[in-house]
Amino acid sequence: MEGSWNSVSIILLSLSFLVFNSTFLGAYGLTLLNLSHSNFSGKIPVELLQLTKLVSLDLSSNSLSAEKSFLDNLFRNLTTLKELSLGSVDISSEIPENITNLSYLKSLYLDDCNLIGGFPSRVLLIPTIKSLSLSGNNKMEGPLPKFHGNNSLEVLDLSSTSFSVSVVSMDSQRISLQARSVC
Question: Pick from 120, 108, 114: which is nearest to 155 by CA?
Fold first, then answer.
């Protein structure tokens, strides 16, 4: 059993009084970190951005906030992400242009993050993106970009945002987009 985790059952994992140590977590090649609904509060530790092997990161439904440069740094450092969920994290910034660094990204959930600015059209350049949710960011506004037929986007949730959309232009481009709600 020494060195093998295959037959280990974790019955209780306590993270009480956790001091985030990315060196410790990164040493094990951590690829999935789900801390959603964990009652965490405060600023997201910048050490999290050192977990460069992460494929999935979920910090949603906590009372967390982020520095203005957080998304820019995240998109620069965590380039192997396939899934990113930051729902209800107070980000209060625009989505930076370097989102295209996440070339493996399949799903992006930034619901209720107090995002501002226009639609992050560069996200449509990510060839693997299938699901994008920006719902609840009522300070995001402006026209939606043209959706090109070669994009893999299947689900787009823009509910409770201030984007303007022309349904005619979306239909004429023949994309298979299932927008749950565009308001």
Answer: 108
